[in-house]
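Worked Example 4.2. Consider the chain below.
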Amino acid sequence: PSLSQPEREGMFHRGAGLNLTSGQYTAPLAGYYAFTTTLHIVRTEPPRKGQGRQGSRLRVLICVQSRCQHNSNLETVSRLESSGDLFTISVTGTLYLQAGQYASVFVDNTAGSPLTVQRGSDFSAVLLGV
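Applying the procedure from the previous section yields the following structure tokens:
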């Protein structure tokens, strides 16, 4: 496969499996794929009174076919501290995908204040074997 032209500086993707509009990676072949995402997330508003305490957490998942409630996902949970506005959270693991199935990243925000994914965040998939 050839290297695709980046849409902006510092960005590239190889192969046709990644759809940058939908944020989904569609498996061209059935097999085991190594997935990685690293998200740089900023709190866009200061936490309201009472936030940043117990229950304030950020879950990041890589899910197959958007089925995050099933076992076909990778997940990490991070507690949001009351101090600081920038968080970095990563998920890495292996998932089996059938040809034509897709995987995408989901963020579950229980913090109650708006969050924004920053530039420099990434999502990748590599076929390990069939």
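The radius of gyration is 16 Å. The mean pLDDT is 79. Compare this with Example 4.1 before moving on.
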